[in-house]
Task: inverse folding
């Protein structure tokens, strides 16, 4: 964070430094605390809701929430298209209307649990939410514009502007043409049956079911079709799985499978340690994956020594919304360490050890919930 001493630095000094890893034993920095105050995760007790209320859904806002007027907001479609388009929000609302239930998860979810820890937004496991998004499908709009046969990427630009790792930019992300033309992808203007809130991208945002949250561009105002791979910061530098600073890495795309436990009992105020009475108890939570539907969830109550199958609710909300799981448990007084792990139809399973990378992305290591069962 800026101090009085910083005012003596030359005006040309960097205002945005390179990424780094925390030193062994280094605590959360003031800058990370500031980010954590702006960006919040879902309270884990809210896993009980099939649809996450808007105020409980996780948030990651890279820069500032822009000041936009829905009455005058317009979306442009240009680049290598036959017919460039400009549409108002009212015109987008006149197009076919679709509502999809979609689980969004931040690509950095779990970052603060890694060792060594990448210094950035210090997520634990709460950067997720499952909402109903209403809007119009993107694919018909792109077909109407007439995408060139040699198109490669579709770039989405938001109205939020800032500087990151020394690069001044509008927030921009791209999708390969084949992904942008998926029928599930939406230009969304409502969340849970109400107009988008400012922090969730009002008046217009992108929803890309199955992909981590960085692809769901908020405050969307332009779409450009390119004949080459997009090399903007958020694609080429930021969201990549790399093992070292000079590793080009591979892009972060679809959500890895994850199951979360809704913590049972009641918490200690400071530590959030859980306290439970002995006797029958239904453990439950949610599971999801962006690669394929979740097909099984296993639960351990002994820190991973043994695992047992949980019961999965029937899928009712499509392939891109989380599913509830349940497990019947009857603990005696003592200390327990709970985890759940999901497996999807593609064969991907959550690891019990950290899948480390320098950016702290896609860390779907199993959650651990310590519980103390106390006598009546």
Result:
């Amino acid at each position: 964070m800026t101090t009085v001493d910083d005012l003596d630095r030359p005006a040309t000094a960097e205002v945005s430094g390179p990424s780094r890893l925390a030193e062994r034993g280094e605590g959360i920095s003031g800058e990370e605390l500031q980010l954590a105050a702006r960006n919040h995760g879902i309270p884990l007790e809210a896993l009980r809701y099939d649809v996450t209320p808007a105020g409980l859904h996780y948030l990651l806002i890279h820069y500032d929430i822009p000041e936009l007027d829905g009455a005058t907001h317009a979306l442009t479609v240009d680049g290598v298209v036959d017919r460039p388009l400009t549409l108002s929000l009212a015109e987008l609302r006149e197009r076919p209307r679709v509502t999809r239930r979609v689980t969004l998860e931040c690509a950095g979810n779990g970052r603060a649990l890694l060792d060594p820890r990448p210094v950035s937004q210090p997520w634990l496991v709460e950067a997720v939410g499952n909402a109903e998004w209403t809007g119009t499908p993107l694919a018909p709009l792109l077909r109407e514009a007439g995408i060139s046969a040699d198109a490669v990427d579709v770039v989405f630009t938001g109205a939020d502007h800032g500087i990151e790792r020394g690069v001044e930019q509008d927030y921009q992300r791209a999708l390969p043409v084949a992904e942008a033309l998926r029928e599930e992808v939406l230009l969304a203007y409502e969340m849970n049956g109400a107009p988008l809130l400012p922090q969730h991208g009002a008046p217009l945002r992108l929803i890309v079911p199955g992909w981590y949250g960085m692809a769901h561009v908020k405050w969307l105002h332009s779409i450009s079709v390119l004949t080459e791979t997009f090399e903007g910061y958020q694609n080429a530098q930021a969201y990549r799985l790399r093992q070292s600073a000079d590793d080009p890495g591979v892009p972060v795309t679809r959500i890895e499978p994850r199951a979360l436990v809704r913590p049972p009992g009641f918490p200690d105020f400071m530590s959030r340690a859980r306290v439970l009475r002995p006797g029958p108890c239904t453990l439950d939570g949610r599971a999801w994956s962006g690669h394929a539907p979740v097909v099984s969830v296993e639960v351990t109550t002994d820190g991973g020594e043994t695992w047992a199958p949980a019961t999965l609710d029937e899928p009712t909300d499509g392939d891109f919304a989380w599913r509830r799981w349940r497990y019947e448990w009857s603990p005696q007084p003592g200390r327990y360490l709970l985890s759940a792990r999901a497996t999807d139809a593609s064969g991907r399973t959550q690891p019990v050890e950290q899948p480390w990378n320098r950016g702290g992305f896609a860390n779907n290591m199993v959650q651990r919930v310590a519980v103390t069962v106390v006598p009546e």
